[in-house]
Design a protein that fits this description.
Blueprint lengths: L3 H9 L3 H23 L2 H18 L10 H20 L18 H19 L3 H12 L4 H8 L3 H21 L4
Helix pairs in contact: 1-2, 2-3, 2-4, 2-6, 3-4, 4-7, 6-8, 7-8
């Protein structure tokens, strides 16, 4: 399997199948990152679509010497998310209802899943934006500290510090809510 950087070069040269491979590899992690930050499935889907459109349109400007393609794509997703949040201000987001696909679940299981997702989202909302994004990229999009640092334009040390503070704060929130 070709690396994302090789696929990006092939896409820039006009290979549509190469971009389809990029899409297949990055769709889930980018969507999960956006899902946990955007506030609704619909917003995450719209932002993911816009992310891949911008990737395709600007793929010729991607420079492998400046970092991994995955970090470049996540930087685009991050910037689109920030732009959306600026446009919408601090408006309260509607509750997210997870679509559970590829398995049958009972109404009780679906309700429990929705309650857990809602509780996690509410706790994440209590974190500063930078901490929330680090947590979403690391734990929901399975990115390394190096990839997160490149995507957010920060040093790995700063990402480590943000992650540490976020996890410590989430631990305090769990204690306050008596979740042990």
């Amino acid at each position: 399997m070709a690396s994302l950087e090789e696929l990006a070069q092939r896409t820039a040269a006009g290979d549509r199948d190469a971009f389809a491979e990029i899409y297949g590899i990055l769709l889930d992690p980018i969507y999960r990152f956006l899902y946990w930050n955007a506030g609704s499935r619909e917003q995450a889907e719209d932002l993911a679509e816009e992310t891949f459109l911008k990737c395709l349109v600007n793929i010729g400007s991607y420079d492998p010497g400046r970092g991994p393609f995955k970090a470049w794509a996540f930087r685009i997703a991050h910037n689109l998310l920030v732009d959306q949040q600026r446009r919408r201000g601090r408006r309260r987001h509607e509750e997210l209802k997870e679509d559970v696909e590829d398995r049958e679940v009972t109404a009780q299981e679906r309700l429990e899943d929705e309650e857990r997702a809602s509780a996690v989202r509410e706790m994440l909302k209590e974190l500063p934006s930078a901490q929330r994004q680090v947590i979403a990229m690391k734990y929901f999009a399975d990115m390394s500290n190096t990839e997160v640092a490149q995507a957010l334009g920060r040093s790995e040390g700063a990402v480590n510090a943000l992650q540490h503070r976020a996890l410590r704060r989430l631990g305090k929130i769990l204690e306050e809510r008596d979740w042990r």
